[in-house]
Structures are given as structure tokens and as C-alpha cells.
Amino acid sequence: xxxxxESGGGSVQAVGSLRLSCVASVSDYSSYCMGWFRQAPxxxxxxxxxxxxxxxxxxxxxxxERFTISRDGAKNTLSLQMGSLKPEDTAVYYCxxxxxxxxxxxxxxxxxxxxxxxxxxxxxxxx
Length: 127
Fold this sequence. Notes:
Blueprint lengths: L2 E5 L2 E4 L4 E8 L6 E8 L6 E6 L5 E3 L7 E6 L4 E6 L8 E9 L16 E2 L3 E6 L1
Parallel strand pairs: 2-11
Antiparallel strand pairs: 1-3, 3-8, 4-5, 4-9, 5-6, 7-8, 9-10, 9-11
């Protein structure tokens, strides 16, 4: 069982920055690939960025070079540093975990492959 708790959302003006954090309550954090996803009103949930235990990352094109995902294995935390924010970044942001340990296991951007989710944190960017 994995419990995820996000924090750090809020309201910011365009071109501003925010940092999201997620704490994972799990004994084998390194066995999980972690990700940030977001869902805007009326839209489907979409990937923002994912990271494996080796630090390999994949970013959505919309946030590449503006956002940075990172994880701390000693603290079981996941972070998302967001910069140059745009109004279209407004959404509820979710921390998610996918068990990706073992032969053939690979990091995925698919929402459906992530079995554990936090409660979400709202990010609002005004123009």
C-alpha cells in the first residue's frame, strides 16, 4: 500500500514559479516510478513528468524546459519545480506511483498504469 500526500499548490501570476512536493508512505520507495499528472476542468488527466529510481525523467512537451521533476530516496519525497508558468498550466496536480521493479519493468507516462494517487493540489496561474 502506498499513500501519497501532495503540498505546495496555490495561486501565482504568469511567468511566476511554484514548487510542489509529495511525500510517499511506503517501505520500498526505490521500487516505484513516480510521476506528476494534472487535470484541468473539462479535460482528461495528463502526464506532466515521470521519474524512475535512477533519476531518468520524461517530460510532457508542454512543460519541457520549464518544469523539473526530482525525487529524494532518503526522504521518500517527490518534487516538481515549476517555472515560467502560463495560465494553461492551471489544473489540479496529482502525485502518482507505479510499481516498476523487476525484469521488464519500465517507466510509463500512462495514467492507467499508475495505481496510487495523492489527493491533488490546485495550481492556478493568472494572466
